[in-house]
Structures are given as structure tokens and as C-alpha cells.
Amino acid sequence: MKLFAPFKIAGRALRRNKMRSLLTMLGIIIGVGSVIASVSITTGASRQVEDKVSALGQNVVTVFSGNFTSGGMRGGWGSAPTLTVGDARAIKNEIANAIAVSPEVRDRAQILANGLNWNTQVLGEGPDYIQIRNWDIAEGAMFSDTDVRSLGKVAIIGRTVVDQIFPEGDPVGQTLIIRNIPFKVIGVLAPKGFNLFGQDQDDVVLIPYTSHMHRITKRTFINSIMVQAATKEDINQVQADINTLLFDRHKTSDPDFTVRSQLELMEMATATARTMTLLVGVIASVSLIVGGIGIMNIMLVSVTERTREIGIRMAVGARGRDILIQFLIEAITLSLAGGFVGIVLGVLTAQIIATATGWPTVTSFVWIIGACVSSAAIGIFSGFYPAWKASRLDPIEALRYE
After folding, report:
1. pTM (2 decimals)?
2. How confident is the model at residue 351, as a pLDDT?
């Protein structure tokens, strides 16, 4: 019974001044609620960015051609014909953890079918492309290695192209004209929507990279090479191995290529979101500090109001430690109660904002635990001085207090 006595006394003391207790908790409620709501929203935004980066592919390392200098002419990154199909084959054969490789040739072209035309992106790719991009085929099938070797006139089209060129649907088996060359549509990509950079990923036509090089653009080089690492942990090693391999193959002291990983893109894309999460969390945490000051103020007032009560308790045998614990329990109770209400309010606020605006929200259990711990810490910190002051009162002087 003695163990729970301080909690019963604290409960009675707080119930005697219900309005004051509620107003004291209000600072903690607002602080915790704003932290939970703001962090949920910013974390949801960060998660959305990560999902968009993931939609670009799974464990992807991309090799881009470099720059060039010829006489007085200079070109930037991606402008030099420095990558070849041989480079892509070497990566596939010699890099241990590269499980999928697709040489890539990019161009835009006016395509025609059914008396309609559309300007779209035409990509020359290898059969591994949809595996690397983690992209499903909604209808039909992907072209094969045989189509690559035979310069096959086959095409896979995105949903936007279907809507523009084949509005009546069922494009599989129909003919698509690219630069006056007929290609048979053998598949339709599943919709992916817009990517991180605002480009419509469904506005695309895929053909074998050999067909693109020899039939469409008459090129002897490729624009880039897409590589899939076996696992996320292998990405950095694959990136380093590709650098070493291409330096050796190109026999150059200055890099004429650039290797970028999905991890680098993820880092750049989420850096701003993480900064915003931290900034908003810090700003919202100011409310917790204000709430702690409010608790300290009210507890000091409570000590003054209950000076005679403290004197009576000490006169009948209560020790200074008992008084200290008593007031600490009251401060912690106020903080934890306010923290609990604040958590509920924060989660509900985040959900209401998500429903009203369509923004994604992610409420982390870690942040909820952190809010509870912070509330308890604020209660201990804010209540310690008033509790210590109460425990140091002289019983005789306290009994004389009016």
C-alpha cells in the first residue's frame, strides 16, 4: 500500500485543480502532437521520394558516356561516343555480382500506326531491361536474345503510347512505323507513371538495342549501360569493379565515362526531405520546452500553496525524500498524460491532413516511443527543482505558513 500511496496523493492533488492541470498539460499536448504530426508528414514525403527512386529500378548501377574535346569544340557529360556494346558484354561476363546488364541507346522519333502519329522516346535495350527496371509486362512478352542477335523488328510500348496510337486497345500484334521501318508490337508495359524528375515513364517504345543502332540511328556506340547488382549491399562493389574494368578497357588516364549508383540518387533525392524532417522536428520541439517551463511554473505555485500541507506531512514523519518523490510524481504524471493525449492528437492530425490533401504520412513507432520518453524526461527535469524546494522546507516554518 505504501508503494502506491504517492500516486494516490498525486492523483488527488491534480484532481483538486482540474482546470489548472489541464492547462499545464496543454503545452506538452501541443508540443508532442505537433512533433508527431509534422514528422509523420515529412517522413511520408521522404518515403514517397524513396519509392519513386526505387521505381527507377532495383539495385541499379548506370554507366554513362563521358565528355569530349576535339580541336576547339568541347562537349559535356554524356556527349562522347565512349561506350560500346563490348563494354556492356565485358561487364556482364567479368563483374561477379552484376546479374543483369542492358546496353542502352536513346533517341526520340515520330511513330505512326492506325493513321495516327506520336512523338515519343525510343529506347534500344537488352532483354534484361525490364528486370533491371523492375517493370512488368501487362500484355504480350519481352523480346529475347534471339531478337537482339537478329536485329529483330519488334517493339514493346508503354501505356501512354497505347492511349495515343492505339486508342481502341489491343495493340499486340499490330504494326508500328519508326523512321519508315515497320516494327511488330509484341508487348505492352505495365503503367509506371511519372518518375522523380517529372518525366512520363509510360511514354516510351522499347526495341532491341541492335535494331536501334543498325536500323534506326546507324550508331556504333551506346549512350549508357544499365547494370543490376545482386543485392543492395553489392552496389558499391559493383560500381567500383565497373570503374576498374572500364579504365583498363579504355586505356585512359582521365575517365571518359561516369558510373552512378541508385544509392547516390537516393541520397541526393532524400537529403532535402531529411533536412526538412529535422528542421520541422526541432521547431515543433520548442513547444515541448515551453510545456516544460509551464509545468515547472505550476509546480512552484503548487509548492507555495501547499506549504502548510507539506509541513504537516513532515511533522508526522514524512522525510524530505518522500516529499521530493511526491512532487516529482505529480510533474511526471502531468507530462505523461499530456504526452499520451499529444500522441493521439498528432496521429489523428496527420491522418486528417493526409485524407484532405492526399499527402502520404508515415507514423513511426520509434517517434511515438521517443515522445513518451521525452514527456517523462520533461516531467523529471521540470519537476525536480520545485520538488527539491518542497523537500527542503523547514517543518516549523511550513506549519506557521498562512
Report:
1. 0.64
2. 85
